Give the backbone structure.
Amino acid sequence: MEEKLDSIDIKILEALGVYGPRNILELAKKINIPTQTVRDRITRLKSLFSLFLLVNIYHTFIGLKKAFVFATATPGHEKLLWQSLQADGYWLYLAARYDRPESFYAIYGIPVDHTDEFEHFLEEIKNLKIARNIELFWTTCLDTVNLTGNWFDHDAECWGFQWEKWVEDIENQGTRLPYTLMESDSYPQKADRIDIFILKELEKNAECKLCDIAKLLDVTPSTVGYHFKEHVLAKGLIEGYAVVLPHFEAASDSYCFRFNFHDEKNMAKFALSLRDKPFVRGIGKIFSENALFVQIYLPRKQFRGFTDSLSKLIGGGLLKSYEYSIEDQLRKQGQTISYEFFKDNIWVYDHEKHMEKLLELARIRT
């Protein structure tokens, strides 16, 4: 029998997204559930639902600019393209796509002073005939969308997909984008070596104890505590906590949607309408365009309801167009920010080394 979330699970998961998992005692008080019950439920969710509690870094404040890359392999070079996209060590996420034969999409965080070199790196992948097509989009940081009790029927203890109400509610949204979706004119380096190391560890596990990080760094716990409070938190280096689990039924898929709008006003309304929806995991804005990338997670039987809603939005003039990729759940990979590239409080971007890796991969191919 398939395990399902109940009302208490949803309440705890929503609180984890808002308050984070680092102080369960305080979290339990805020939602009026016994502390031990919260701890037991989190343990259960990790065991039965593969719950992961992570932090999302606000890359803009550590000098990294986000990029979405969509690449289609030259036939016969699918494995080579997968390897080539990782030759630049600043990749953050890589997944295969179902929409085209052997194609991938990747997310990078590139040092802002080296964007031209990254573009050259991608162009070389195409010149080497490893990929027959590559598209690059510079984006804002991703606005994390965590699970809420919205659309959860607490009486029946199941999800209800209110597509018509969602379409109607979009018009009632504001017209100002969240700060994480605003294009930044600058990418200040607000972190030092210890801050970057802390962020890297919290990306893997938001519950990681600061004393354990201190041991890894061979510094005192008070030093790490100071950096966490006065730098990581005070300087806004964390965009939010990510609560990741497959909260729908087994027959669900993950997508990367691109939504195009006629103007910024409608784009903002659409983005704001998604920030409490259970089928959204992250939102990013494409630079210099009225367009969004949205990471969607949806039961297959609800896909038609979603696309029918999009059709209504297009007919009503709020949405211009959309396209999407389906992720291969068995072929995806992520990594943290690459601490090893951070030297003397700057990111070292070794373009020549990246190019050498590409050429070596191409030589092995032949």
